[in-house]
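Ticket #4471: structure export looks truncated?
Reporter: QA, pipeline team
Priority: medium

Steps to reproduce: submit the single chain below to the structure queue and open the exported record.
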Amino acid sequence: MQTEELNEAIDEILRSKYLVALTGAGVSTDSGIPDFRSRSEGLWYRFDAMEIFSLSKFLSDPVPFYEFAREFIFPMLEAKPNITHIMLAELEKKGYLKALITQNIDLLHEKAGSKKIYELHGNFLHSTCVNCGKKYTLEEVRNKMKEEEIPRCDDCGGIIKPDIVFFEEELPYRVLQSAYFEVERCDLLLVIGTSLQVYPAAELPLMARRNNAKLILVNREPTPIDELATHKLNMPLMEFSNALLERLRRS
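Actual output as written to the record:
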């Protein structure tokens, strides 16, 4: 049954006129990066998310975040793209995928070659002093972390914060509006590797369906909107991506 539905879903993708993709943490697990919410290995079942990624907590005591960053985040940035990242980049290169919206902060879509990316939660390429606004590159912050428990600004001594979205922060306005614009235009939204638990990303599939776009969900865990999907594929992302990539390269 899933094989038949997989083939039907791929047919829909290759027939689409304006395909948009939305990706979550599950896309990067095949690159060795743990996701956040899976029951067995999700990071939030092992760590207190609000202790690490709450803005108010970070501003009062950034030590827990930077301890977590040293152990998990900065090693994560050395990961390599997997078959799903490569498949999405190939979809864009062949002209099918018009925009890629991601909740991920690991930069793997960029590494795979995707170009038109909207990063809802930011990334680690740059950081900013919370006091004076001075910008720092990833390498500058890494070098500071070798000598300082908490990276601090050279100019004012303020805490340096990565340009990622913490809890209690608004998403980047322009990025979010661009994501809305793309989803409103799409005739098919491909949602991969996300449990759709975090808003406003979780409302994007609902917006697509309100605009009569088709919806394909690929995720091994249930999502709150499975019943709205044109196709829901409960399979490993590697299996889905290999099948789509094979068809894509034959087309």
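Status: closed, not a bug. The export was complete when the record was re-opened. Leaving a note from the reviewer for reference: The mean pLDDT is 92.
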